Amino acid sequence: MAPNRRRGEIAAIIDGEERILCLTLGALAELEAAFAVDDLNALAERFAGGRLSARDLVRIIGAGLRGGGMKVGDGEVAAMKAEGGAAGFAAIAAELLAVTFASAENADP
Asked: Which domain holds residue 70?
């Protein structure tokens, strides 16, 4: 299944398999709670700083995988592998956040 970037979906190879990630409204609410912010603007500002920890990447990618329909806990996400290691996970998270917070006309590259 091809990702629909207009719905905020991306595809990423994780653990050797193509996965669909999406920060649904529920996934965004999960991230608001995890990062202790009050709203989506505060969440976007938090990510705009460009400084993400490994724990942040696990939370973002885990929420994206769950939003894409995969039943996975953050502990399982932490044990997953991506091409490029931590940099690969950072690239996946960056793409997911960019698509999620992009305007509709900028959703497709």
From this structure: 8-102
